[in-house]
Amino acid sequence: MRRNALLSALAVATSLSCIGGAAAKPLAFTGIRLIDGLSAEPVADAVLVVDGDRIVAAGPRMAVAVPSDAEIRERPGHTIMPGLISDHSHVGIVRGVDIGAWNYTRENILAQLEAYTARGVTTIMALGLNGAIMPEIRNEAHAGLIPDADLFGVDRGIGVPDGGPPQAMVRVSPDQLFRPANADEGRDAVRAMKARGTDMVKLWLDDFGGSVPAKMQPSVYAAVIDEAHRLGLRVAAHVHDLEDARAVVRAGADVLAHGVRDKPVDPDFVALLKAHDTWYIATLALDEATFAYADAPAWAQTPFVRTALAPDLKARFDDPAWQRDTRASAKAQAARDSLATNLANLKRL
What we know:
Layout: H1 2-14, E1 27-34, E2 43-51, E3 54-60, E4 71-74, E5 79-80, E6 84-89, E7 94-95, E8 98-99, H2 106-118, E9 121-126, H3 134-142, E10 150-158, H4 167-170, E11 177-178, H5 183-195, E12 200-204, H6 218-230, E13 235-238, H7 242-250, E14 255-256, H8 267-276, E15 279-280, H9 284-295, H10 303-306, H11 311-318, H12 320-328, H13 330-348
Parallel strand pairs: 1-4, 1-5, 6-9, 9-10, 10-11, 10-12, 12-13, 13-14, 14-15
Antiparallel strand pairs: 1-2, 2-3, 7-8
Helix pairs in contact: 5-6, 7-8, 9-12, 9-13
């Protein structure tokens, strides 16, 4: 799997359309910066050799024997690394500074997949709020008909009536989100998702810092998890607080799609995650993005970031008044606190 991911990343790193089985002789990429997933630091002045659909050698130039019949492609200044996997993304719901169902178009989704691919991300899991177009684009991505990142996704999300995720924030249409009022409706939602070929189930449990009046009831998320498992589906849960995370893991959730951000995790919680073999996705970028661009750090000024931003988003980030107001906001301070706790908990876990 690592070899295949690295092979796919070659196409990104070197702007090649084909490096696989069609090649008549081995290819040797030389002078590269290699991130191999094994070394503590990137390998400078490295060589990577591809023969057919296999990477057969990779390492420092002096340690790799290049086949005598290999085609040499000198690529100084280029980095080759395994393709990155985003376990928690949302594609299509945002366009520039605008959030809403109307952005969930084929054009917008494909543009975002292209932007991910250009930055080394070769596989994406879109965790919820996906509409009717998702199966079509996902199937094309799986079949290689889209020359960008492969796409997996949750058919619809499962939220709470008058609760999370707040409609005022996500502004989604009815075909993007279920809000079951009881256990039976939760099971119906899962069955509908299974019928449309969803890859996973995603539920929103928490109350978004008290900004919505209710959390998902245990009877509902227990029914959702039970029905999903009965149908062979895994469940990811949006959480914020330790006690919510503890409860949903005990109920059988397979993935925590956010880190615990209200208090330090304890040994019992660590043992619980191990006992249930629960995946933990910290999603650090969510809180960081709330304030980071207002701080105007050096990394936010790099071409890697700037070329990924829509013009109206760049204009917002560059606006001194927006930067000042954001830095001073209660929302930004809450995000800084959440990020600090998330980082400490991730390290502890």
